Each structure stands twice: as structure tokens, then as C-alpha cells.
Amino acid sequence: MNYPLSVEKWDVFEFSCEGRTEGNPFSDYEICGIFRSSQETVRVNGFYDGNGIYRVRFMPSFEATYTFCIQGTFSDRVYQGSFEATSPEQSNHGPVRTANTYHFAYEDGTPYYPVGTTCYVWELQSDERIDETLKSLAESGFNKLRFCILPKHYDYNLGEPRSYPFEGTPMDSSILTKENFLQYTGKTEGNHWDFSQFNTAHFQHIEKCILTLQKMGIEADLIVMHPYDRWGFSQMTGEQDEQYWKYVLARFSAYRNVWWSLANEYDLMEHKTLEDWEFYAKLICENDPYGHLRSIHNCRPFYDHTRPWITHCSIQRQDLYKSSELVNEWRIRYRKPIVLDEIAYEGNLQHGWGNITAEEMVRRFWEAACRGGYPGHGETYLNEDGVLWWSHGGRLRGESWKRVHFLHGIMCQTPGIGLAPKEQEWDEICAVPEDEQLAAKTGYHLIYYSFMRPSFREFYFDDSTWYTVEVIDTWEMTTEYRGTFKGRFCVELPGKQYMAIRIRRAQQDGREISSHCH
Amino acid sequence: MNYPLSVEKWDVFEFSCEGRTEGNPFSDYEICGIFRSSQETVRVNGFYDGNGIYRVRFMPSFEATYTFCIQGTFSDRVYQGSFEATSPEQSNHGPVRTANTYHFAYEDGTPYYPVGTTCYVWELQSDERIDETLKSLAESGFNKLRFCILPKHYDYNLGEPRSYPFEGTPMDSSILTKENFLQYTGKTEGNHWDFSQFNTAHFQHIEKCILTLQKMGIEADLIVMHPYDRWGFSQMTGEQDEQYWKYVLARFSAYRNVWWSLANEYDLMEHKTLEDWEFYAKLICENDPYGHLRSIHNCRPFYDHTRPWITHCSIQRQDLYKSSELVNEWRIRYRKPIVLDEIAYEGNLQHGWGNITAEEMVRRFWEAACRGGYPGHGETYLNEDGVLWWSHGGRLRGESWKRVHFLHGIMCQTPGIGLAPKEQEWDEICAVPEDEQLAAKTGYHLIYYSFMRPSFREFYFDDSTWYTVEVIDTWEMTTEYRGTFKGRFCVELPGKQYMAIRIRRAQQDGREISSHCH
Asked: Given pLDDT bands bounded at 50, 70 and 90, which one contains residue A254?
């Protein structure tokens, strides 16, 4: 028996003990615990972690003395004990929750503006590559990372992962080529897996990665299932799936930075039915006592994001031309946060989903942000070493990520939590604070001109209020103060694409610097 | 009495005679003629042209001996005579007609691919400016020009026109400013017009301009009514409108390069009803015996382009983001040629309709062309002299017009008449000849990648046919031959935006130069 006497609130309290190893400890025995403080009583399932060790993890949500009572089916012994959940360090804000209907905040109330990127199997690469990815992430400012628990078989990603989730041996991948790989997608021949035996090293490694991300302030948007498979992991039986989901939930739920993405492109998983997805959702709701964020990502048709278990939309755009521009509609339709987990990637692949410019990527980010949605990033640049950020992580090669970081800084200056779209002029994308009272009080307007190139814009809100005006070059990442105005005023612009204007109620009377335009 | 003894087929035969001038010759008298050859009998109305002169114009559609019989209500005399309609010169292909449902051809069968631009009141500027515009047009390769018969009152266009269509005096325009001009839109005070008295010099000048354009191979897309008015021309009575329309039709119909645009932004003309528009359409159908092309242009809601008198759609895009991309839908809906008479203008105005980049303009041109539609150009660059191409003509300052010329060259190489969209891959815009048999026979594919930047694309049509492949850089205006391939083949691309690939059945067996990609 092993456990700490204190953990920070929202950190992982982990209890471990030895137990029986006869038979199949993954399936033959169970372990679970009940954790009590004056504010909560939580029941959690533990899991077998190999080498005769069973573990139970728990995330305390209160600063309090907790007692626990843990019992495994492998013995009659009841483990009891207590620990202190202490006040969190400054960087620990708790798990992310939805807030203000369309937005997010950490449990401690700190607003959270997701700027995510995707590196599908970064954690299944070599140590050196993983270190490189972490270094890139630290530099980038991304605060959400979308990745898969299971290995990925797909164009540009035909290599072996560093480990597999189950004991067994994979098919011979030396026969795979760029030309034939699709024939092996969804094929199970040549693989020999014991789906009843988890490879604990695989999960231990992922936990280490989740924790590293947590320390960097990055949410781990875990893709639990996906169709890019040559091993049969996407075609397990219902029972095997259930075991897999429960194992994942028991291991990862106590990490505060975990989000559940049931699948990437769920609709491409032809062996799964809607009933299956609803069943997995039920498993999450039953086995994750902390209510981590839950969603499911589409290729073509959206999942029905009105389902009550879905906390936020995870959207892959359906249209070649319009992606972020549809955030307004989706907000109305789903009344949940709109996270755009694929709006195409900056790159130069052959495919339309992976070859937009950095400028277009940043434009889609601003369009989404100013409509009250949350865009996601990815990079797919072909290169000699075959390492693509979107799949492997590694080094960021593009130009959009820097501007995403800059946008995040602007988003964080929103009064209250979250931006809402405001109908202003037909040819401007205008955001105001979601909270109407704050919007009125602050006069905050973030106005984006996208691909348009106005040389000036005229404004009128009222006759008496002074407004400070800044011109933002979203590409050059500059913010320029232009003066304080009232009544009708005109803002000169450089006649370039990707400009924004930020207008805020002035703290004191200003000085009209220029109000006459062309 | 005056008339020529011969004219070219599709040129204007003009008869003139003296008649009574008492009262109001514009309304008190009529003159009409009947023209006969072995192939046609055509009745046309003439008009009073001032100074006691009445004219009757006729466009012969056949090479034949024509006799005519002309009579005015101002006397009992019947003028009879004959003339020869001779074979047309090489540059004279006759009026433009719709062809192949979605396309256009001259009456002699020569395909006509419209690449139009808009200079609303170029012809109402000074002689010097008009000459400059004509020089620019000659250099540009545009083959359709959209402009107004009536003067224009609008932002950046507050000056006096060189002439007015009616006798009288206009309001004092010295009081107009950029700030107050909108208050005078649709106001009639201060104007003193006699709507029963046409200013013949105004119309004579426009005829001269139409004829000059004709000699340059440019169609005159005449906007007969519009809402940008401070003189009251948009608020005449039903009777006055009818008189205006009949006068316009009698004067201009015989010019083979005339198209009728009933209005620009018809829906902004608040004093006109749907019944009014249908009535004007009826007047055209009754008074233009040559069946010139007819359409009507919207601001927001489209006119019902299924109306039988509408020969082609004249569309202003309704969406900020999608314009040309919707050509496919409109083709299905209207089954007529889709002319995009406003997809925003290259420029840097404050307004979203007038500040897109040259790159975006050219992209919209290619999108439209590869979907079997016909995009239109315009330029709105602010500049010190206040001369904007979109309104005044003058000098082209942008970068898109050159690329439009290049695209026109590509369009003209289409087998048969017109391109049709083909569903190929979701991330390519693919055009094939409209004629299915020709499409099959020629294997002609024009594939556009828009804002995407593929580094290569793979193709497979069949195993046995050899195809020649060209890579087109639509921005740099280059076409590069890449070889002749069969079976599966791969085309390397530079990973840049705005690239196209043209594939055609080879004349003879080729040589596979490279078929292996990244």
C-alpha cells in the first residue's frame, strides 16, 4: 500500500497496492475506492497496472481532509486512510469547464480561451521527437493539444508507434507504401493481439505525456477512438471496447487537463453504430466522476451536438470555403461552445484539408474568434524528414502559429468570459463581450476585416462617450493606439488584408486626434 | 431623306428624313418602318433626333436585298427604297446570343466568352477621360462593358455628367459633400426637367460610344435604370418611363453589341414595383426586334431569373465569402448563363464590395469560369485624382485585369462552346466541355486549386488513353507542358496558391516523363 499524505487540490491522488496476478488481472479483478470530504463523496474505479500492482486515482475538488476506503476483489482487505487536499499552486486552476454557454473557464473561474493544435500521435514517437514537440509547444503558446491514445495508420504516418495498447504483435509494416497503405486500412490480418491484456507501458507513457502537458498549461484533448487503423483496434468487439474505455477512464480521469474526444472522424468508423457511441458516452459519464469535457469529431456529418452529454461542439468544417464563418449559425443551433477541431491545416500536401496558407489559417482563426468560437491549428508541410506536425509533432515550420499566440493574447483581454458576435455592418466581423452588461459598460468592440482592405472605416456609437481606438495588424502582430474619440469618427487603415480595430470605452475624456477621412 | 445603299449584315442601316417640329416632336409624332428581305420582315420604330430630323434604324440579319417602307405620322408621305446587306467583315460576328443553355456565342456561331468590367458612367466624363478609358479597354482585353445611360449620383461620383438625358437644369451640386450626399439620393428638389424633351446630344454621344466599343469587339451592357440618382430620373411617372424606354429602344436596338440590363440593383429602386419591371421587359420584347440579351441586376434579392424574358442571370453576389463558388447551384436553378456582374471589386475603399485584393479577384474569376459561369471585373482604388475605374473609367491601376485577359485566352481554347463543372475530387474545381460528346472525345479537363497549395496531384482516368498535361500558374500567367501520360500519373505542383492543371487527350502516344510523387 502506497499513497501520499497530501496533494494539491485538482492534482492526482494515487493509491497503489499489491494484489493477485493469477488469471487475467485486467479482467478477473476489480478495485475501487470511495473518497470523502465534508464537501464531496466520490466513487472511482481503479485499474491493474502490471507487475502485481493495482492503482486507484482520485482528483480532489476541494481543499479538505479526505478519507478513503478502497477495496479490491482480489482480497477481503479494505484499505482505509486519509490525506489532505491542499491549496493549489498559482498555475493550477483546476479542470476546464464550459462557461457563459459558449465559452470555457477553469474551475477556479479563470477564463480559458482554447487555442489548440493537433499532433495526432506525437506521444508515440521517439523520446527525441517528443522532446522536440514539447519544446515547440512551449514556444508556441498553444493551450490545447489534440492526440490519439491508439496508434495511427495513415498517409505520411505508416511507421510503427513506440508502443501498442495491447499485448501482441502487429502486422508486418515493411510491405506498406504510400500507394498501397489504403488497402490495409481497416484490415486486421497479420495482427496478433490479446485484447484482454493491456500493455501498461503504453498507458504509463501517455500519462507521463498528459502530466507534462498539464505542467505546461496545455489541455490534453484525448482522442479515444479513430478509424486510421491497420491493427484492428477500430474493430474490437463491444465487450473489448467496453474494457478499453473503462481502462482509459480509470487511468486518465483524475488528470485535470484531460478532455474526452470520443473519436476523430467518428463517421468513418464503419464498424461502430450510433448506439455504440451513445454507449461509450454513457461509460464516460458513469466512470469519469469529474465531468471532464466531452465531444466527438466528424468527417462529414456532424454528430448531434445537442445530445446532453456533449459539452462542446468539436467540429470539422464541411465546406471547402466556409468554416469559421459558420460559427454564428452553430452557436444558435447548439448553444454550446464551438470548437473548430479542423478548419484545414497550414501546409502543402496534395489534399485540400492540408494545404492552406498561413494567412488563410490566421484569417480563419480571427473569423472564428470574432464570432465567439474557438479555432484549432494544424500544420502539414511536406519535408525531407517526413515529420509532419499534424501527425508526429516535432518542429513548427509554418507562420500561422505565431499569430495564433498573438490572437490568444487579444482574446485574454476580453472583459468577462468570452466574445459574442454582434451584427454591425455587413462587411465587418464584430465581437463584443458575451456578457451584455459588460459589453454595454466597457463599450468593447473587436472588429475584424478579414480578406477585405478598407482604407478607412467610420464609426458612430453615441454622441457623448469617449472611445479609445486601436488598430491591430493581425499578421504583423502589432497593436497601435490611434486616439480617443467621441461622436462620429473615422479610423484610417493601411488598405491591407487581415486588419482589426479594437474600440473600448475610454477611462477618461480623450482628445480627438483625427476624425476626417478620404 | 437620307440612307445608304448598302450596309454590312449586323451593321446599322439608318434612314433619316425631315419632319414637322411643331408641338413636341418627341411625343406628338411617330415614325416607323418595315424592312423586308426574302428571309425576314421586321417592323421597327424610329425616333426624333432634334433639328427637325427623324430617324429609323434597322439591323439586317441576312445578306440580302432589303426593301423598306417608312412612314411618319407627321406627313402622308411613305418613304420606300431598298439597300443591300452585304457580307460582314471578319470582325463582325453579329449580336451575342445564348448558346448551349449556359453559354454565349455570336450569331455567326463564334463562341463568345464574356470577360466584362464595369465603368458605370465612363461615357459621361470628359473627352480626355473617355479616350483614356478606351485606351485602357483596348489594352485590357475586356469584351463586355457595363455602364449606365443615366448619370450617377453616388459616393466618389458627385460631379456633374457631361450631359443630361432631358432638357432642363439640375440641382446645385456644389452643396454636395462626401458626408451629405446620401441625403440627396432620391431627392428631386432643385431639379427642373422637362421629361417630355429628350436631350438628343446625350443619346447621340452614347451611340458614338456604343459604336466605338463595337469596333473594339466590346459588348455594351447598357444599364437603362438605376437608383443612384439626385435628379429624379429614377422617380419618373409610368408614362415618362415608358417614353424613356421606347426612346432608348428605338435609338439603340439596331447596334449589334447592345445588351439590356433593365437596372443595376433594381431592388433599391423603391419607386418601382415588380409590375413595373415586367412592363419594361415587355417594352423591350416588343420594341427590340433583334432579341438582344436581357437581364436585371440585384443588390440583395435576385430577380426571378426563371422569367422567360430573362436571357441570362446578371448576379450580384449576396454573400460576403461565397460568390463564384455558387455558380453550380445557380446553373441548376436557372438553366441560363450565369453572369456575375458584381463579385466585389479589386480596390481599397472602405466598403466590403470594393476592397478585395487582385489575387482574390482573379481567384473568383477562375472559380466562376471553372464552374461554367462568367465573372465580372471592377476596380475601386482610392487615389488623389478621385478617378475610380468602377465609376469613371480612366486608367486601370490594379493587377487583376491582366490575369483576366490570360484566363480569357484559356477559356477560348475550350472545345465546343462553354465549360461545365464536373464533380471530380472534393478539393478541386474541375471544368470539362459543356458538350458531353466533346468532353468524352477530347478528354479536356481544366482543374483549378484556388487558395489551396497542393505540392502534387494524382490522376487516373483509364488505362489506355494518353493525356497531355499542362500546369497553369493563373497569377504568373504561365502555361507549362509537363508531358504525356497514361494510367495513373502524378503531376508535381509548386505548392503555391492559384494553380491550375489542364489535361487533354493526346494527339499521339506520349512519353511518361514522371509519374512518381512525394
From this structure: very high
Window 363-382 of B, Cβ < 8 Å to A: 382
For residue B507, what pLDDT band results from cuts at 50, 70 and 90? Answer: confident
User: What's the grid cell of residue B148?
Assistant: 449606365
Taking CB atoms and an 8 Å limit, are A356 and B382 in contact across chains?
A: no
- Would you state the torsion angle of the CA atoms of residues B484, B489, B490, B491, taken in this order, to the nearest 10 degrees? 20
Reported as type and span, the H/E element at residue A359 is: helix A358-369
- Using CA atoms, how far apart are residues B322 and B126, in angstroms rounded to an integer? 37
CA distance A428 to B198: 44
Residues A194-251 pLDDT 10s: 999 999 999 999 999 999 999 999 999 999 999 999 999 999 999 999 999 999 999 9
Q: Strand, helix or coil at A328?
A: helix
The minimum CA-CA distance between B135 and chain A, rounded to whole Å, is 28
Residue of B nearest to A383 (CA): B518
C-alpha cell at B225: 435604370
- Please tell me if residue A348 touches chain B, with a CB cutoff of 8 Å: yes
Pairing of strands A41-45, A31-36: antiparallel
**B positions 250-269 inside 8 Å of A (CB):** none
Indicate yes or no: CB of A427 within 8 angstroms of CB of B458. no
- Cross-chain CB nearest to A495 (options B348, B352, B495): B348
CB-CB under 8 Å, A458 with B348: no
A317 in B contact zone (CB under 8 Å): no
Longest dimension (CA), chain B: 85
Take residue A414 and report the three cell numbers written for it.
Answer: 476580453
A498: left (phi over 0), alpha (psi -120 to 50) or beta: left
Check A321 against B322: CB less than 8 A apart: yes
ipTM: 0.94
CB < 8 Å to A351, chain B: 427, 454
Q: How far apart are CA A446 and CA A67, in angstroms?
A: 49
CA angle B292, B293, B298 (to 5 degrees): 140
| Cβ count within 10 A of residue A90 | 5
Q: Are B513 and B491 in contact (CB under 8 A)?
A: no
Best probe of the A interface among B178, B426, B453, by most A CBs < 10 A, is B453
Burial group, residue A42, by CB count within 10 angstroms (0-12, 13-18, 19+): middle
User: How far, in Å, are A209, A460, A503, B163, B447 from residue A463 at the CA level?
Assistant: 55, 8, 15, 42, 54
Give the gyration radius of chain A's Cα atoms. 25
Q: Which amino acid is at A492?
A: E
Query: Which 8-state DSSP code applies to residue B313?
Result: E
Give the strand pairing for A294-295 and A258-263.
parallel
Would you call A342 helix, strand, or coil by DSSP? Answer: strand
